[in-house]
Description:
This protein is mainly alpha-helical and 508 residues long. Helices cover 56% and strands 6% of the residues. Strand 1, helix 1 and strand 2 form a beta-alpha-beta unit.
Amino acid sequence: xxxxxxxxxxxxxxxxxxxxxxxxxxxxxxxxxxxxxxxxxxxxxxxxxxxxxxxxxxxxxxxxxxxxxxxxxxxxxxxxxxxxxxxxxxxxxxxxxxxxxxxxxxxxxxxxxxxxxxxxxxxxxxxxxxxxxxxxxxxxxxxxxxxxxxxxxxxxxxxxxxxxxxxxxxxxxxxxxxxxxxxxxxxxxxxxxxxxxxxxxxxxxxxxxxxxxxxxxxxxxxxxxxxxxxxxxxxxxxxxxxxxxxxxxxxxxxxxxxxxxxxxxxxxxxxxxxxxxxxxxxxxxxxxxxxxxxxxxxxxxxxxxxxxxxxxxxxxxxxxxxxxxxxxxxxxxxxxxxxxxxxxxxxxxxxxxxxxxxxxxxxxxxxxxxxxxxxxxxxxxxxxxxxxxxxxxxxxxxxxxxxxxxxxxxxxxxxxxxxxxxxxxxxxxxxxxxxxxxxxxxxxxxxxxxxxxxxxxxxxxxxxxxxxxxxxxxxxxxxxxxxxxxxxxxxxxxxxxxxxxxxxxxxx
Length: 508
């Protein structure tokens, strides 16, 4: 069995992604267990000394001035889970829930939360047993972290809430019983530790960014195919151009274009034509794609830092101090995910413009809407409409959530991040962008069928072959939705990128 060991410090986007495999067993490192025990001893000493500690001997948020008697302190921790489980809407997918759980465990593994080792070990047992708590998507403002969704996540730990196991929904208690796991009776401070944190927005962000890395490669592939059928030039990819404006993403994208189109007989066939320059959607594609790539890199760095951070409140330090701070505020992730949403939206924006150029005979020199007997057949006319609709929707979704703030908790929490909303929006933009790129790939493959006597580049040919293995050429009108769906599945599954990389080497 594969194992992922959490130590609170070394999780990456790739190793977190590996945790999505239910066959991977998640466990704590030896050092983490020691740090967790040390922090718990500090909490218990504070209880013995009757030291006032936020959320352990007091109420929460605006109620932090209310002292809780020792006899009620454990009930307080159960109450915070129940009262804060006020989320609404559809539940997060099981993949994202599992990723959230991995990030929660990794944060606690740092040893600053004051949670007991046994409680965290039970949390990991739930995860390793294939139990997925039902976590509604809506309800977090990203202030004291993702309070509402994390409360729903933690409810199952105490035998409450709902969970998915074995292909069906059941009560949290039934899910635990089916796996032979006893519900936890929370000790002082544990409920607060479980709901305080940014792991929901960070998990959604990590999921989006892992997919975005592949989307960036796919954008270069799709654009290369469009470039060829629109009789574009390779001049704009010359390494000398990009060395004197050395943005890393731009240089990497241009390198990909050079390799994907290498050996293209289509491009070589018109090298002496009178056309001086290509349209921006072709000529500036490395600059546009590259700018998005650079945003992804910034967001990746932010999310990986957050994945390995202690974002609870209060924080228990090795010197015995228990300090109250604001690490739970989601602003770093919120800004990064708003930027990510815009960066993904731009990949779709420029892709749709290339689709328009392919289907418009006045711009392409190709048959109207890439179909014979235009008029009788509409070809890819409405596919471009769909791409336009998705791009327009993305423009609305790209409006930043992080610039909004509605005070909560009787104005105690008077500035909030809306980080979870930012991450969820980025996820929705990603889904739309995949479909736009699927449409571009279908149009480019349809157009490539017209170049029967000339070979495309090595990379474009590899992409074309994968597409044609699953979607046939359209010689007369048929329902396009199944074709788009199949192409999107190829985008999602990585088959196109894998085939191109096999042909030209790993893309940057």
